[in-house]
Amino acid sequence: MRYPFPVGKSDFIQGDEAIARAAILAGCRFYAGYPITPASEIFEAMALYMPLVDGVSIQMEDEIASIAAIIGASWAGAKAMTATSGPGFSLMQENLGYAVMTETPIVVVDVQRGGPSTGQPTLPAQGDIMQSIWGTHGDHMLIVLSPSTVQEAFDFTIRAFNLAEKYRTPVVLLTDAEIAHMRERVYIPKPEEIELIERKLPQNEEEAKLPFGDPHGDGVPPMPIFGKGYRTYVTGLTHDERGRPRTVEREVHERLIKRIFRKILDHKDEIISYDEFMLEDAEIAIVTTGIVSRSAVRAVKMLREKGVKAGLLKLNTIWPFDFDYIEELAERVRKIYVPEMNLGQLYHLVKEGANGKAEVELIAKIGGEVHTPMEIVERVVG
Amino acid sequence: MQIRLAGIGGQGVVLAGVILGEAAAIEGLNVLQTQDYSSASRGGHSIADVIISKEPIYDVMVTKADVLVALHQLGYDTVKDSLKEDGLLIIETDLVKPDRDYVGAPFTRIAEETTGLALTVNMVALGYLVAKTNVVKKESVEEAIRRRVPKGTEEINIKAFRAGYEEGLK
Questions:
Q1: What is the pTM of this model?
Q2: Is residue A353 part of a domain?
Q3: Is residue A165 less than 8 Å (CB to CB) from chain B?
């Protein structure tokens, strides 16, 4: 296979471009989108690359159709992705729920910009954290990953596809305008250096008859592919193990939804990823996700120079959330600070996790600028 | 090293930043490049930040510039406060009237004289910057130019870059 970009070497590219290349290397062969700043460069790259790898990149009439198209492509056997920003992500919420309910592996990239509404199209924000987790209606479970560098944007995109395939679930890659448009040196691995996970397919007629069952006990049913020999029924209505609508029986609904939760939560140790920096002996913990983590690393170093024992916990997965680990952390530190580019979203998750064991303080910043390290330091030392 | 390039839309400030960043990446250095521009395609301010380091880079934009390259008064006025007190100011001497010590040359005129194209001013300024700072090797920039400029314009851009480099050695 020839790739339309160099592999096995470093390149100097934007976050959006890194996401597109990672998707191609992860095996994504269907992209549907609607242009929006600051995610358009992902679409531009996909439009360029897809024809060269025998894939499809299509512009839909809007974001609702874009996510609908990738759900359809996934059921036809393709790894599929769409990318958007806040306004488009809002439009995708109904079908994001449909993907949860139909257990469709897809990757949805949300490049956050200032909101609500059309807000600040060119500037970064982290105002979609809660929307990425809770934006669709009903009880639901999905996975949200959040990179802080262009390299992580690349690596986490590969991981998003792997998690989507492994757990038959939509995965949101939550990034922002800053990472999308910044250029950094990124290592683009050769295909043989990348571990890819493919969805489970039915091994026999019996498994194919139960596309929403649990034949392996891990909560993840094999996924029959349209056109590959089996009859399958896919619906957003509450359905039984065979996929047939059964909308009034309490037990059927509970069994389905609880399995969708279980297939993720039973594997949360594998799904949840974080990085720690100088946290072992820390008395002050800073908890971040995404772009702000970079300023927080610098802030921790500056605080250490001032004799403050500070450390950083950088969350790479923000959903499912490791409430237990935050409680452990809260037991061994004096105080937790949560700098984020919104008026308090991750803060509420951390506060719930801390469970009163340590004080949790929000360092909010909105308007389109990342916190400077000094702004974090000043809040900590007062 | 934190380098900030400032001008107006149409001067190719962001492309100059990208090429400088690419040259650093070619040399295996850690590098980050970001930009800030008004939505006007011509006329508004245009800023490109490049941070080059052997260490991991955590900053996402220039906080205290070691070098500021100003190609237009509007760009200069927008970001002049970000230059360190002992930082190096490089200006387009026909278009910027600075209020502190500086080095520079009439980059636009040099561009016109060398290539016949005022729009190669970004490459002239880049050559001058590289000669003055040695932040990356001349050869790395020329390789980066070949990779990043539109096909067919490589030689004209390299010619402009070399003219700026020579000027910077003076």
A1: 0.96
A2: yes
A3: no
